[in-house]
Amino acid sequence: MFVKNIAVCGLGYVGLPVSIALARHFDVIGFDVDSQRVSRLRDLDDWTGEITPETLAKSTLQLTSRVEDLKGCNFFIVAVPTPIDERCAPDFTMLKDASRLIGSVLTRGSTVVFESTVYPGATEEICGPELEKSSGLRCGVDFKLGYSPERINPGDTDHPFEKIVKVVSGQDKETLELVASVYETVVEAGVFRASSIKVAEAAKVLENTQRDINIALMNEMSKICALVDINTSEVLKAAGTKWNFMNFTPGLVGGHCIGVDPYYLTSKAQQLGYHPEVILAGRRINDSMAEHVASKLIQVLAHRKRLASTTRVGVVGITFKENVPDIRNSKVVDLYNELGRYGINPHVCDPLADPVQTKREYGITLVEPSMLQDLDMLILAVPHKQSVELVYDKLNQMVAKDGVVCDLRSVLEPSRLRSDVFYWTL
Ligand SMILES: NC(=O)c1ccc[n+]([C@@H]2O[C@H](COP(=O)([O-])OP(=O)(O)OC[C@H]3O[C@@H](n4cnc5c(N)ncnc54)[C@H](O)[C@@H]3O)[C@@H](O)[C@H]2O)c1
């Protein structure tokens, strides 16, 4: 087996950085069904903010939304979304579509590597058969499967694709070596050869589940700290002096990885007759946080006699986490809606979120920061770098005398705020 041309299917947060890195060493075609995404990338505009226009301009990556252009490729990488449906069950629609699409151009001797996060078994049980159906070829004989989970962390410039050890796996020894050799070319941190595709799938979903549960523990602890009237950050600071204490903080868990991937694992477990308890408890706690925060904030406003039909609340940050423009499954939206149930309609600003997309997806109109004036409560929901500076710089205009600052991620130094301001955090 050898690699002729590589096709990367799905040019989002994962697929684009992978394609750009591989294109430094191979002939790579980047394919996306979203023709708008392709044309904006051709115009050197990556809306995810992960790849600069200069890097796009220099890259030899070919961009297309025409599946025919993938003919002739013999190494495929799939990085399409794997969301959950409204019942929190895995939604394999896009993964199946991508498999069928690749199957339509697949030739004997090719390798198809999946990067999308799934449960252990999905690549061979779901993607393999779809590829077989649409190609008429036999999986494991005419073409081979690989799996290499992605670990990039959007918005985190310290850990780019090249600097994170890449777990690789293959259907057989020969495929494992081929997949390893491709990624070894570009991943400076090296690759880890997992013993099977299922092991690699399970490793990825475990990484994100572990993070979800650790945050859930912190969220539960913050509820207990509130009951005993102590500050969670101070408890974490003290506990953090122990050598093996793990550094997690309470907060809203949104986005399309941490809050989603555990459901892939629990769904597989349930298929096999096991009912996971810890994982689902973590999910319940994290999913309840927006409601919890809203009710706490209402209590704070009431205690400070600032709860009225004229109460002015401003929210800074609507994306699902800091330093990314991604608004998908943002739990700040849940918080906004919860406050709405109490009759409060906050003004929201976010320097990174796309106003058109935010309006279309959630019906929320983003405003300029200058609109956040004389507030009863300012909620720093997502601490983008520039938003933290904004709060420090404009606090006097933004927050009324004796107003409240809610710092959801505990990033502000209370000593830098005005002394009349009431500081609240999880
Ligand atoms: N974003 C992350 O931080 C991250 C990190 C690690 C793993 N993952 C996993 O990687 C996978 C991809 O995530 P993402 O964040 O890059 O998603 P994304 O939504 O940013 O990008 C996916 C792209 O795939 C395209 N697409 C959808 N169906 C397609 C098809 N049939 N053929 C070709 N293109 C198609 C979409 O148009 C989109 O541009 C998911 O399984 C996710 O869980 C994501």
Structure description:
The chain is an alpha/beta fold and 426 residues long. It has two domains: 5-196, NAD(P)-binding Rossmann-like Domain (Rossmann fold), CATH 3.40.50.720; 288-426, Rossmann fold. It is 40% helix and 14% strand. It has 14 helices and 13 strands. The chain has helices at residues 15-22, 35-42, 53-58, 93-103, 122-135, 173-186, 197-227, 232-239, 261-271, 278-287, 289-303, 331-341, 355-362, 385-398; strands at 5-9, 27-31, 62-64, 75-78, 110-114, 143-147, 166-170, 191-193, 313-316, 347-349, 375-380, 399-407, 422-424. The strands form two sheets. It has an eight-stranded mixed β-sheet, sandwiched between helices. Strands 10-9-11-12-13 form a five-stranded parallel β-sheet, with helices on both faces. The mean pLDDT is 96. The structure holds nicotinamide-adenine-dinucleotide (NAD).
Q: Which structural traits does this protein have?
A:
Rossmann fold; binds nicotinamide-adenine-dinucleotide; eight-stranded mixed beta sheet; alpha/beta
